[in-house]
Amino acid sequence: MLKTIYLANPRGFCAGVKYAISYVETVFAENPGKPLFVRKEIVHNQRVVEEMKKKGIQFVNELSEAPDGATVIFSAHGVSPEVVQEAKDRDMKVGDATCPLVTRVHKKAKNIKDSHQIIYIGHRGHEEAIGTMGEAPMFLVESEEDVITLKDKITREKPLTYLMQTTLSVTDTKNIVKKIEEIFPFVEHPQKDDICYATTERQEAVQTMIESVDAMLVIGAKNSSNSVRLCQLAQKTKPASFQILKKEEVDPNYLIQNKIEILGITAGASSPQVLVDEIIGELLIHFPNATVQLFPESREDTMSFKLPRELVK
C-alpha cells in the first residue's frame, strides 16, 4: 500500500520550454486577430499544445500547410536551414522559439562544418537531431555499436569531433564518447558537452533519490526524449519504475502488485506542473493516507532565458 510520495526537484518545465511557450503566447497576444502558425509541437506535451489550440493558435507539421506570407513559429527543438529557407522563399514572417541551448549546438555545427568531420550523438528521427544535422554533414550514432560501424567512414585526413542532442542520458552518452575515443583516438573533445543543464539536473535528481524509493513515476510524453531517458535511468535501479502522461493512466493495482510503498515522482522538461498536481490528486484518491513531500535533498531550478526584443522577422 502506497505510504509516501516523494517529489523530485528540479522536475517539469525547464527554462527552454518556458521560453518557447512564452514566445508563442507573446507573439499571439501582440498580434490579435491575426492567424499564427506553429511548426510541429511547440514542446513535446499534448496538454500544452491543446491549450494553445483552444486560444486559436494553429499547429502544422510542415510549412506547406500554412499559406504564403503567414506568421509561423519554429518549435523549441529547432529546424534545419532548409526549413528556414523555405519560409523566406514564401515570404513568411518567422519567429524562432528554439531553445537557446539547442541554438548553441546549431552554431557550433556551422562553425566547424568545413574544418571537421562530425559525429552526432542523438536519436534518429528526433526533431532536434533532424534540425541540427541539417547544419552540416554528420555521422549519426545512437549506441556504441553505431560508433564501430564508422571505422571505414572516418579518416585521419581531417580533424574529427562530436556534437550531442541536448536531451540524452548522461551515463549512456559518456559510454558512447568513450567508444568514440577508443575507435578514433585522434578525436578532438569539445570544451563542453551539449547535454543541457535541465536534462543533467533532472537525471541527477532521480539518481539522488532512487535508493530511497521503491519506484519512480516519470510524468511525460512518450515522444519526449528527456522523459524517456529519466524512466530508463530509474528502471536500471528500480525496474518497477514507470512513465505516464495523465491522471487517467494512473493504475493503483500496478502499485499494489509491485508492493510500491514509497513512490518518487519526477516530470520531464516539457510536462507542466498541472499534470503533476492532477496525477498526485488521482493517487491520493486511491491511497488517501499517503503523504506527499519534497524529497529532502532536492534543489530548485533557477535558470531562465529572456525573450529577444524582435520576436518575428
Short description:
The protein is an alpha/beta fold and 313 residues long. The protein has eleven helices and twelve strands.
Describe the structure.
The chain is 38% helix and 16% strand. It has helices spanning 15-30, 46-55, 81-89, 100-112, 127-133, 144-148, 170-183, 197-209, 225-237, 252-257, 273-286, and strands spanning 4-7, 36-39, 58-60, 71-74, 93-96, 117-121, 139-141, 160-164, 215-219, 242-244, 262-267, 291-294. The strands form 3 sheets. The chain has a 5-stranded parallel beta sheet. A 4-stranded parallel beta sheet has the order 3-2-4-5, with helices on both faces. Strands 7-6-8 form a 3-stranded parallel beta sheet. Helix 9 (225-237) links the parallel strand 9 and strand 10 (242-244). The termini are far apart.
| Number of DSSP helical runs | 11
The general outline is flat
Element pattern in H and E: EHEHEEHEHEHEHEHHEHEHEHE
Major sheet: order of its strands? 10-9-11-1-12
Helix percent reads 25-40%
Radius of gyration: 21 Å
Average pLDDT level: 97
Number of strands: 12
Write the SSE topology.
Layout (H helix, E strand, L loop, with lengths): L3 E4 L7 H16 L5 E4 L6 H10 L2 E3 L10 E4 L6 H9 L3 E4 L3 H13 L4 E5 L5 H7 L5 E3 L2 H5 L11 E5 L5 H14 L13 H13 L5 E5 L5 H13 L4 E3 L7 H6 L4 E6 L5 H14 L4 E4 L19
Parallel strand pairs: 1-11, 1-12, 2-3, 2-4, 4-5, 6-7, 6-8, 9-10, 9-11
Helix pairs in contact: 4-5, 8-9
